[in-house]
Design goal:
Elements lengths: L1 E3 L6 E5 L6 H12 L4 E2 L8 E5 L4 H14 L1
Antiparallel strand pairs: 1-2, 2-4, 3-4
């Protein structure tokens, strides 16, 4: 994945590999890992996930580990 630096620092966009559909990955993360992200397709950024960076450190680290595992 590729990180797009956030402007407001509350959220970040993560660009997914071309073969990974953002909507399906977001649903899989929710269903399997209880990890919530916003699919970029809903934000005119298909192929990306929007991540909230405001979660406490351990929750953010677990969320990132869940995304890694899902990929």
């Amino acid at each position: 994945v590729e990180h797009v630096p956030p402007h407001a620092r509350l959220y970040a966009l993560v660009r997914l590999p071309p073969a990974v559909p953002d909507l399906a990955l977001a649903q899989h993360l929710r269903d399997r890992y209880e990890t919530l992200v916003v699919p970029g397709s809903l934000l005119e950024a298909p192929g990306c996930l929007r991540l909230g960076l405001h979660a406490p450190g351990p929750q953010l680290e677990q969320g990132l580990a869940n995304i890694s595992a899902a990929l």
